[in-house]
Design a protein that fits this description.
This is Putative polysaccharide biosynthesis protein. One of its GO terms (molecular function) is N-acylneuraminate cytidylyltransferase activity. InterPro entries: CMP-NeuNAc_synthase, Cytidylyl_trans, Nucleotide-diphossugar_trans, PseF. Pfam families: CTP_transf_3 (PF02348). The chain is an alpha/beta fold. Helix content is 30%, strand content 22%. The chain has one domain: Spore Coat Polysaccharide Biosynthesis Protein SpsA, Chain A (Alpha-Beta Complex). The protein contains six helices and ten strands. A hairpin with a 2-residue loop joins β2 and β3. The longest helix is centred in the middle third of the chain and has 15 residues. The two termini are 33 Å apart.
Amino acid sequence: MNLAIIPARGGSKRIPRKNIKQFAGRPMIDWSIRAAIESNRFDRIIVSTDDVEIAETVRRLGGEVPFLRPAELADDYTGTGDVIRHAIRWMAQNDRMPGRVCCIYATAPFLRADDIAKGCDLLEESGAEFVFSATSYAFPIQRAIRLTPERRVEMLMPDQFGIRSQDLEEAYHDAGQFYWGRSEAWLSGKPVFSLSATALVLPRYRVQDIDTPDDWLRAELMFKALK
């Protein structure tokens, strides 16, 4: 059984009601639900939320909210892993234990169904315990600088200063879209970002964090341009 879990907490601070705020004509979470459905990789797609309004919105969109998440798993300090483990255990008790579980973020409008499908295939082909979306940094991280308390500049990696840019190792970061994993790996609490994982690398133009109103505006403009 393949299970998709979309965490959607109600208490977003920087962008109120972020998960169901209208983005390009639809509630934000609807883009994630549709991508999950169109991937044709899931037996069930559920939303884990503590919020009644989000639950009602999801059900109106045709999504499934089989339970309301406990309040102790909906504060500012609860990690995604705790939310996924709770949903897996709920499924094991009320349906059956899933074999593969994909956490899909509710605020990932650039997520594509074929990327979800490729991630599922890569999980099997690679033998890894996790597969997640990633993209490369636009600028060599070895050239990063920091400001001292006196507002002076120093390099974070001064030993890399004399190396040509083209000879520096490329670095990647989490794209914040989806995380495939085997149920036993999720339940064990293994870290996703480790040697037990591999990454599906996406082009940078399809990756956008949306944490502030400025991020939202930029993402919506990019999304409309790509469409």
